[in-house]
């Protein structure tokens, strides 16, 4: 990973963290509703995995946090408009912050039901293969979601048809209040790859370089037509399942232990040590981030709500190929 | 005009549309090497190759959800389910993904997907013999068609494949072998949302769906011999639904019977009844009559199946009751 990429990943991790902190403030102040599932602590995995993609690749993100969209380059004000249910977002108030979509960058959207992503990812991979393109599909999911039947169906189908799909598991140890060891029969989700005769690899999900290398290898394999892979990053959900989660199901000690492994300061220290990042650049990034967020929040404040009757639009496309 | 079977008409539509548009693909369980359990797709793999026509594992969720994903990424997939009942197996992917992905993402994507659903009771019991159209009429975002004859089977399937929305295409198993005149050539299509008046009449409106249409026509013939003029309407597409043709007919006849192979409660007839209550109550001089399956699963033994299924005698009796 070259220094430019390291800095870019760091900058996007920082922006994602600050954006979520801002969203939490807005929600707590009653200025945004939203069905927001924070991803604080998982930014390294999300940003570094997406850094392996080309702009024309497809992305199916999971429901934890904003870093996927920040990493892909979706404008912040659009994300916030979706959160606030205002005009100017990506989905016209129809899907909230759970269904940010961006066709220009291959962002196909999100399944509201967990595990709905797997068949969609396989299908996008099918399209790539039928058209003879060299794109790939990156599909994120959580450890809990790997227990859906769709995981099995789509993994197997992708494997037998050699579809160019890279499945990235964010194993954060918790499915809402259910710890992975009680919900899931294997310790490593990547072990499940063996059932589909595809490569499976587990890496430290809080180490962006390890994530990047593993996902890059899987993406290149898929691009060459060699089929799907499963990459698991071990990480941790530092905040609750939602803003306001009482978190009565896990101990403060456990959470504090993981704050000490927080990927953001960890990567920051590493880059400072390597002299890739300096205190001056860091201060510039923080200032830039603050300005970007201030501007975006101000933009959203001024945006109107959609006209109520537009609720009736977008059910069917009026077009046809006939 | 030449006559072909309903099954041949479906196959012809698939071949024409696959030739016309390289983005049309076809897959499902046993469709390629075997040619489909109802033999509709025999030979298509040889014509179009393994990338465009292929067999899949037994994975209905992945088949339908994969169709949604492939459609998002620019293909026009035709997915064959072996039985219409398997729509329930793939329920999330049918209702929440195919039906709602476009809406939930603010119209950012089109989903040109066709799911072929062999329907109808044929001695195959509760989980392989249903006509489940009404379940999916309730779900927003899905177009639904149920052809009753070979020409509509071809024309509606071609329209379905060209449509930029998800379409559930119900092909009745007992109609596969029926013959009829079917126009040749790529340009022949049948529009959605336009009912067919299968027989004109003035005394009673008989709405029939799918395999009930030929039965309704036989009943109309019998009633004609008794001096009653029955108008038989085949809605053909259930979503979008042609209300006007039914309302216009009822305005003329004042009486309506709906014959369908759904369960009676909240079936297609229930929706037609509610629609008439709202929009055409003043035209009705007798109450609506529904001929449908009583609310039980479809039994397997022929003698039991025949007892619960609508048939010509039941349709005849319902009409007689209103005409007396």
Question: How does the SSE layout of this entry go?
Answer:
The complex is a heterodimer of chains A (322) and B (324).
Chain A: H1 3-28, H2 43-50, E1 58-60, H3 67-72, H4 76-84, H5 117-131, E2 137-142, H6 149-160, E3 165-171, E4 174-175, E5 178-179, H7 180-183, E6 200-204, H8 208-223, E7 229-234, H9 252-259, H10 263-273, H11 279-302
Parallel strand pairs in A: 1-2, 2-3, 3-7, 6-7
Antiparallel strand pairs in A: 4-5
Chain B: E1 3-5, H1 6-20, E2 24-28, H2 44-48, E3 53-55, H3 60-72, E4 76-80, H4 86-89, H5 91-98, H6 101-104, E5 114-119, H7 133-137, E6 143-145, H8 150-162, E7 167-172, E8 179-181, E9 196-199, E10 204-208, H9 212-225, E11 230-234, E12 237-239, H10 243-253, E13 256-263, H11 268-279, E14 289-293, H12 302-308, H13 312-323
Parallel strand pairs in B: 2-3, 2-4, 4-5, 5-7, 6-7, 10-11, 10-13, 13-14
Antiparallel strand pairs in B: 1-8, 6-12, 9-11
Which overall shape of chain A is indicated by the principal axes computed on the Cα atoms? globular
Number of domains of chain B: 2
Question: What is the average per-residue confidence, as pLDDT of chain A, rounded to a whole number?
Answer: 96
Query: What structural class do helix, strand and pairing data of chain B support?
Result: alpha/beta
How do the strands of the widest beta sheet of chain A line up side by side?
A: 1-2-3-7-6
Q: What is the CATH topology classification name of the largest domain in chain B?
A: Rossmann fold
Binned strand content of chain B: 15-25%
The largest β sheet of chain A comes out as: 5 strands, parallel
CATH architect. name of the largest domain in chain B: 3-Layer(aba) Sandwich
Shape estimate of chain B: globular
Helix content of chain B: 25-40%
